[in-house]
Automatic annotation (TrEMBL):
<feature type="domain" description="Peptidase M13 N-terminal">
    <location>
        <begin position="7"/>
        <end position="215"/>
    </location>
</feature>
<dbReference type="GO" id="GO:0005886">
    <property type="term" value="C:plasma membrane"/>
</dbReference>
<dbReference type="Pfam" id="PF05649">
    <property type="entry name" value="Peptidase_M13_N"/>
</dbReference>
<protein>
    <recommendedName>
        <fullName>Peptidase M13 N-terminal domain-containing protein</fullName>
    </recommendedName>
</protein>
<dbReference type="GO" id="GO:0004222">
    <property type="term" value="F:metalloendopeptidase activity"/>
</dbReference>
<dbReference type="InterPro" id="IPR000718">
    <property type="entry name" value="Peptidase_M13"/>
</dbReference>
<dbReference type="GO" id="GO:0016485">
    <property type="term" value="P:protein processing"/>
</dbReference>
<dbReference type="InterPro" id="IPR008753">
    <property type="entry name" value="Peptidase_M13_N"/>
</dbReference>
<dbReference type="InterPro" id="IPR024079">
    <property type="entry name" value="MetalloPept_cat_dom_sf"/>
</dbReference>
<dbReference type="InterPro" id="IPR042089">
    <property type="entry name" value="Peptidase_M13_dom_2"/>
</dbReference>
Length: 231
């Protein structure tokens, strides 16, 4: 706390002023605080555990939890093999996308992706406490479907926002080239534009950051005594 500042005039600096003056945020970080430090320390400890599992892999029983974790860690750190495989590990997903020809096909694809890969694409689903009654767990749907941080990135027209969208298009084109979607440069540009247009249309339906956590808006849901999900 900075007691030289009146809380009535600037409560933020009153509460955080000394910390802001004394704390150096590392250049590698976008934010900094106690939880960031705890997380970084936790990551170091987890890495040490994984490195030890890797070294002792041959001593584990085949099919054991230790062996599975070690194999997963080794596979994830094998950058050379990952680069050599390219997009082959997701080829089956790309093939499924190619078979989509109508709305029904899209729905079945989304269900399959969520059920088998936990990838929602257009929404996330989870079960958690009701904000108004923590004794009750309810089904929650969370808006996703855009890759920029939040909806306003698609609509702001200031120079910084425009530059971000331009750089995002460059990134999309690079991804399209990596998956060898097409050898036609003009076609890649058109597909990238279509992707950004689609995300912009999805962003229209997203709540603004200001309204995204308002319980009164989140509570506008239909109550049902029965819920059945099928695939």
């Amino acid at each position: 706390m900075d007691l030289t500042i009146s809380p009535a005039k600037n409560f933020f600096l009153y509460a955080n002023g000394l910390w802001l003056n004394k704390t150096q945020i590392p250049p590698s970080e976008t934010s900094w605080g106690v939880f960031t430090i705890l997380n970084n320390n936790n990551q170091k400890k987890l890495k040490l555990i994984l490195d030890n599992l890797k070294l002792e892999k041959k001593s584990y029983v085949n099919g054991s939890l230790e062996q599975k974790i070690a194999d997963m860690y080794i596979a994830g750190m094998d950058i050379e093999r990952i680069n050599n495989l390219g997009y082959l590990p997701i080829q089956n997903i790309l093939n499924k996308i190619d078979t989509i020809s109508n709305y029904t096909g899209l729905i079945h694809f989304l269900i399959d992706m969520y059920k088998n890969y936990n990838m929602g694409y257009l929404f996330n689903f989870y079960v958690g406490p009701d904000d108004k009654n923590s004794h009750v767990n309810i089904a929650n749907f969370q808006q996703i479907g855009i890759d920029l941080p939040e909806r306003d990135y698609y609509f702001r027209n200031d120079p910084v926002s425009k530059n971000i969208r331009e750089k995002y298009l460059v990134y999309i084109k690079q991804i399209l080239k990596l998956i060898n979607l097409t050898g036609n440069v003009l076609n890649i540009s058109q597909i990238a534009d279509d992707i950004l247009t689609l995300e912009t249309q999805i962003a229209v339906s997203h709540r603004t950051p200001k309204n995204s956590s308002q319980i009164t808006l989140l509570s506008r849901r239909k109550e049902s005594t029965k819920c059945r999900m099928t695939s």
